[in-house]
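Q: Sequence in, structure out?
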Amino acid sequence: MRRAQLEHAIRTACQIIGDSEVIVVGSQSILGTFSEHELPADATMSLEIDILPIADSNEETARLADLIEGVAGEFSPFEDLHGFSIDGVDMETSALPDGWRDRLVKVQNANTAAPSGDPRFTGWCLDKEDLCVAKLCAFREKDQNFVLALLDAGLVEADVIAQRLPEVPDRYKPGAERALAWVSSRTR
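A: Exactly. Output:
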């Protein structure tokens, strides 16, 4: 995955739902902070971008996510044409620590503009350590490999991840505790 593909996904998702802003919550949100040239291969392997629409309720968020998925999701003509898909997600998808919205990374440039050049669409990408918290709470092997690659490359701070893991909503606490043990074992 490349930064230009992230920008294309932001523009496309905004156009699909008729809004000027979306949040990128999956692994490719790391491209909001680093270019693909700065990242280890394990951090850019995914060919899907998880987009969280911004809405007043999770029900509306889910409805908008379904629109994105229907137009640009897996096995769509969009994926066939561009080589990646856009997955619409809702607020239940990611385990995010308190304060995550205050740390979002803004992606807005000429590549996120509408074909007419205006309006400019904005993608808000997860902070790199908040992304690692979400990935580690899921605790799949691919998520562990993703975080380990970022840790080994010195691109994320293990101490910050460890501080934020206990700040996830209660339903994610068991995963956060397992993840905290994993992070501690990697930093000794």
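The longest helix spans residues 3-17.
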